[in-house]
Specification:
Part of the ABC transporter complex HmuTUV involved in hemin import. Responsible for energy coupling to the transport system. Helix content is 32%, strand content 27%. The protein has 248 residues and is α/β, with parallel strands linked by helices. The chain has a single domain (4-208), classed as Rossmann fold. It has a six-stranded mixed β-sheet with strand order 6-7-8-3-9-10, sandwiched between helices. Strands 2-1-4-5 form a four-stranded antiparallel β-sheet, covered by helices on one side. Strands 11-12 form a two-stranded antiparallel sheet. A hairpin with a 2-residue loop joins strand 4 (52-57) and strand 5 (60-61). The structure holds adenosine-5'-triphosphate (ATP). Residues 14, 32, 34-40 line the site of adenosine-5'-triphosphate. The site of adenosine-5'-triphosphate has 9 residues, from helix 1.
Amino acid sequence: MALIELKNVALDRRLQALDLDLQPGELVGLIGPNGAGKSSLLNLLAGVEQGSGEILWQGQKLSSWSLETRARKIGYLPQRCQSAWALSVRDVISLGRLPWGDENLEKILCAAQQTGVEDWLDLAVDQLSGGEQARVWLARVLAGEPQLLLADEPLASLDLFYQYQILALLRRYAQGERAVLVSMHDLAIAAASCDRLCLLHQGQIQALGSPQQVLQKEHLRAVYQVEVELDLEVHPPRLAVLGPSQCP
Ligand SMILES: Nc1ncnc2c1ncn2[C@@H]1O[C@H](COP(=O)(O)OP(=O)(O)OP(=O)(O)O)[C@@H](O)[C@H]1O
């Protein structure tokens, strides 16, 4: 049974008639151009915004859940994270334990180690670099051990080493009863790491399936208006943008 299933989901003019499911153990990549609706969809799943249609969690309506249950089951890393106060790294990661009402030090330390921020626990988070802060905010979500992890462009500010590390971490996280839905712009990385891809365009699903099914020249031309050269058979997959597509 699907961990989560969207049926005919819509959000004002941003998302239309979305049907999508995530299976346990899956890492699904959400791709699409700027403004396609990726963050809007993640907001909707996280409960930050309310849309229409039905969202089912293992067959049960998500709307019937308490906020506390939802916060325990679904962890969300938004695109931009900032604390209004000068919180320490430890404080930020501890926020991930709020839904559980504890400050489980073991889980907080484990999350910090997974993202490589354990040496900075007593530092003020706003004294770290952008990429370092991004890893701290991801640790916050990991500390809550959600069954569904939603991450909005978690690789955007990371260097090459940490892009690799965090992707491997998300890959490992999406096992057993857990699933991960992650938005990203790098299609070669998406092809290399995700079980399935969901290509959004103007609030609708343009293509959904394996990287081979979704990353086809025709889909990318229609959505991004570029010509690409693709080789998904090599590891890691290669994708080069040749230039803008010709107007018909
Ligand atoms: N709160 C809002 N209310 C109304 N429209 C919004 C809101 N937030 C974003 N939008 C609009 O909805 C569309 C989708 O935005 P969204 O942030 O979901 O796109 P995205 O795919 O995540 O883009 P990007 O890759 O640039 O992050 C955009 O046209 C945006 O201007």
